[in-house]
Design a protein that fits this description.
Helices cover 73% and strands 2% of the residues. It has helices spanning 2-22, 24-33, 38-52, 54-59, 63-66, 68-90, 95-102, 105-116, 123-139, 150-171, 182-201, 224-250, 252-259, 261-274, 280-298, 313-328; strands at residues 214-217, 220-223. The chain has a two-stranded antiparallel sheet.
Length: 332
């Protein structure tokens, strides 16, 4: 009963995270078009969220000593890497396209498992990778000679690589006796990401006057401060908190499947609020990408059964089941 309730709560948190993350690009793009550099928008987002989470970081300051590698990795990949690459991508290509490419992450995870860790993957996982790649070809309309900005596509793909790190690191150590508190990991990840982005974005050169004006959202003037507030509080703090906790409750695979809805949410919001219409083949390709990502993310990599402790058949079966569970928790 408790497990079922925990799973339901985890699904609710994962959905909340997908909705929160899905609105980030739609709120950020008008600011970029108003004159802010994409990296400056990312810096405002991460630095603002880091300030909000500062009391949480102080409360969990022992994590700096216990989990320095986890905090550094989360800050570099899950915060700075994902946000910088994604925001730079949407400054060159449509929001929906950037997110659909970013959600090739499940296929990349399976590639990591197969070719880096050298573990076999299921046939369903391979089918998911092929579907995702085929859908991506429709999204970018390869038959028209890659009419989209090539650099924008590469930036979105880099965001997908960092997204892999987000799901893996969010689950790291969750099965340990003294696991890292997810709120503490998020707080220090945001602080570390803000530090890295300060060095990269150099916000002292930002056009601060833009923040006091308005940004055009498909013909509607919206106060820039309101968009920044949404990005910081909803699309960052709320999104990361609900997302990381959902991964702990559900496992990276299930949370990643639900997170794929972010691409759909962002595409619909960009269509409604920004007027970014996609052609029919792109919509079909996007659906195929999501189906492929779902299959790839749901498929558990095969793992060899460990040697039985006792010579009984029962212990062999039990060991194989435990190996499959362990494999499932390491590949989102």
């Amino acid at each position: 009963m408790h497990a079922s309730q925990g799973r339901s709560a985890g699904l609710g948190l994962a959905l909340a995270s997908a909705f929160a993350f899905g609105g980030s690009g739609v709120a950020a793009k008008p600011l970029i078009e108003a004159g802010l550099d994409p990296l400056h928008v990312v810096w405002l987002r991460v630095a603002g969220a880091a300030l909000v989470m500062l009391p949480v970081a102080w409360r969990h300051r022992d994590l700096v000593r216990r989990k320095p590698a986890l905090l550094a990795g989360f800050g570099l990949l899950a915060v700075a890497g994902v946000q910088a690459c994604y925001f730079a991508a949407i400054s060159r290509i449509p929001v929906g396209v950037a997110l659909l490419i970013e959600y090739l992450a499940p296929a990349l995870v399976l590639g990591w498992v197969r070719f880096v860790q050298r573990r076999p993957v299921t046939r369903a996982a391979a089918v998911g990778v092929v579907l995702a790649a085929g859908g991506l070809a429709c999204v970018v309309q390869v038959w028209s000679g890659l009419s989209f900005d090539l650099l924008g596509l590469l930036l979105a793909l880099a965001a997908a690589c960092c997204q892999v790190g987000y799901f893996v690191l969010s689950d790291t150590g969750s099965d340990e006796a003294e696991s890292a508190d997810p709120l503490g990991v998020i707080a220090y990840g945001l602080l570390g990401g803000a530090l890295v982005l300060t060095l990269v974005a150099r916000p002292w050169g930002m056009d601060w006057s833009v923040l006091g004006g308005t940004a055009d959202m498909n013909g509607t003037d919206v106060p820039a401060w309101l968009l920044i507030g949404y990005i910081v509080l909803i699309a960052t703090v709320l999104a990361y908190v609900t997302g990381v906790i959902s991964v702990r409750r559900l496992s990276p695979q299930v949370a990643g499947v639900v997170a794929c809805l972010e691409a759909v949410i962002a595409t619909v919001l960009a269509w409604v609020l920004l007027g970014e219409h996609l052609a029919a083949p792109q919509i079909l390709g996007g659906a195929v990408v999501l189906v492929g990502a779902f299959i790839a993310q749901s498929a558990t990599p095969k793992a060899a059964a460990p040697e039985p402790v006792a010579g009984s058949a029962a212990s062999t079966v039990e060991g194989a089941e435990e190996a499959e569970v362990a494999a499932g928790r390491t590949a989102p």
